[in-house]
Protein 1
Amino acid sequence: MTDNQTVQAYTDAWAQSIESVAELIAALPTDSWNRATECPGWSVRDVVSHIIAVESELLGDPRPIHALPRDLRHVTSEYARYIELPVDKRRCHTPVEVVSELEYTVIRRCRALRNAKYGPGDLVRWPAGPLSRDITYLQLLRNRAFDVWVHEQDLRRAVGLPGNLGSPAAQVTRDYLLEGLPRVVARLAGAPAGTTVALDVTGPLEFLRTVRVDANGRGAMEESVHLAPDLQLSMDWETYVRLACGRVRPEAVAGRLRVDGDGELAARVLAHFALTP
């Protein structure tokens, strides 16, 4: 695909996922809104509020004026405080208000994306408080497709309504997460030169990838099948997402995770498997 086609693909993936979120929450009973998600300290309401907050900021809306409580145990950094503030501001909103705000935000954001004049390589601001930086427009769209889909799955697990696991944004997420795997194996887990680590994922998105560590200690992704890797991790797609996005620890999904080969290396790889803050 050309860069312009990729821009459209990321935009379409984001739109499909955020509209799926809107449909999901519109049908939720009131008592589902306070259910805990796998995001520490966040309920269903909070995850939806976070999605609204990021899209609103990308639209240029001012951040809310709000005094964030200092006793929120899951808020442990300035970045976390930045993310938490618009979420906490909306904790007094009713489900109807949150649903309406999301629907209106989606309409505005879709219009803004249709009218955007940015080229794929143009630099835009990624709003993340102390971690804010300039990234390309293409990266911004990819990040939003990834983030919204991952949070859609947070919501679906919390309310027991699985779905959209093989969607276009799920494929964006797969590619996004796999890019970080060579670094996990080679640098963070310290796998020695010549090591091969295979990842076998089944389910709606099924794939087999191998990371090989070269003589300089750098990891590279390969799509070829190695018959006897030093380590093979096998799991279903949803488990992979939960681990790679830091939603659960490996011991919590031990029954859905198979380890073949070097157990010590597996422990080091899994200890650094989460790629999201």
Protein 2
Amino acid sequence: MPAEPVVQSLTANVTAYLQLPGGWFLNNAGWITGPDRTLLVDTCATEARSRRLLKAAGPTGNPISAVLTHAHGDHAHGAGLVAAAGGSVMASAAAAAEITTGPHTHPGVFECSTWGDIAPPEHIDTITAPTHIDLGGPSAEILPVPTRAHTDGDLVVWLPREGILFTGDLVFADVTPLALHGSITGWLETLDWLAGFEATTLVPGHGPLDPHGRSLPAVRAYLQWLLDAVDGTDHPDFDALETRARALWSDWHEPERHAANLRVAHAETHRYPPDVAVAAQAMLQSAGGPIPLAL
């Protein structure tokens, strides 16, 4: 079973909520607390985990609103609970469109019996431009990512006074990134954009806290390697490349993702639409079958 979530105070008003080691559906979240309101950054994968997060974020009894960094279920499945408690939910337009057609649990890929109530909210406020959130003292900037990156609709939450950046899944720390639903080239451009914040602390989507963006070069090197590894041939030996990736990044969790990422990279470098189903099937073959989730 995963370890207990780590609730880590970053400042008097900012808290990170870390679900380590950060593998499948074990994402990070956090919150910013003002005198009368709390802004939650992301939720969790299951009803029980999201309720636990909301309890941790709400001891003052403040109303809680949420901003979702992207549409993947580990970050968004608790949004309905936020709305049911009277809070607003914010996401990019692309993420909102995907979330409201869910929940998406991908039963052919994952085995899980503990989802609980993860019905999406009926309404999500869409973020289409940089948005300032004033919490009565503390404040946050919700910023759309300039290009397609991890997904079609990524957001980050920036606290300039504190130097803290909630990156969502644009940053994975000690966990294999998943490039199944976005653009690897766009993701590389976005890493440059993230570096420009010069944040003192990144709260990654998965894995431990990242002081001073130390994970950015590692994620960049991996994504660039994916593109370079498949660029020179129409018919790469995906199995051999996956073996190489597992050796190069042997300390990263969820290595079966290499199989999917390489196929997405090949589609991108050779300019044809990626077949997500084929990439997911390659990942399942690498994992030895459907992936059981201990949530």
